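tool=predict chain=A
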Amino acid sequence: MIQSLIFDMDGTLFQTDRILELALDDTFEHLRSKDKWSSATPIEKYREIMGVPLPQVWETLMPDHSTEERDLTDKYFLERLLENIRNGNGALYPNVKEVFTYIKEKNCSIYIASNGLIDYLEAIVSHYRMDQWVTETFSIEQIYSLNKSHLVRGIVQKYGITNGAVVGDRLSDINAAKENGLLAIGCNFDFARDEELAQADVVIDDLLELKKIIGEES
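tool=predict ok
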């Protein structure tokens, strides 16, 4: 039976879209005020690459800027994200708390493995009191390779997981599951792509569907 579930955060548990545009608009308005950017905020480009580590985000969005300018932008963006989380502008996806409660009642462990940074993840977990269900939260910032498969491998090794699943909305989550011998559960949510979900073992449209999957695997 499934003994552990490893969840992605953005686009899987947390509705990042609610704060993404706010933070990104603030960030690029800040750049415009310093004459570091002259065009519109590249929100659609960000959506296309949603889920990759932040250093890759700024390389894509700001290819002509220096590493120093990207680092400063990254820092400003993170501050805006944290501010929006603490102000309650974000939200968990429907049924997260109900499903987490059910999973714990089934004596399954819950972990989070995310491409988000440590401070960002801590802000979400704290604001929504997710630590009452989640055993431990892991950030890509803890892995030198910035490879999600390696991040999940560390969780598997640390907790001795022999039968588990990775739940996420992007290909990096699906690959992380398969490369570590876990069930790949794809979430058909806001940032998901059909061609990526096609590679998952199971695809869900609502987190409540995890109840049936856990029940079937018991």
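The chain has a mean pLDDT of 93. The beta strands are 4-7, 109-114, 134-139, 164-168, 183-187, 202-204.
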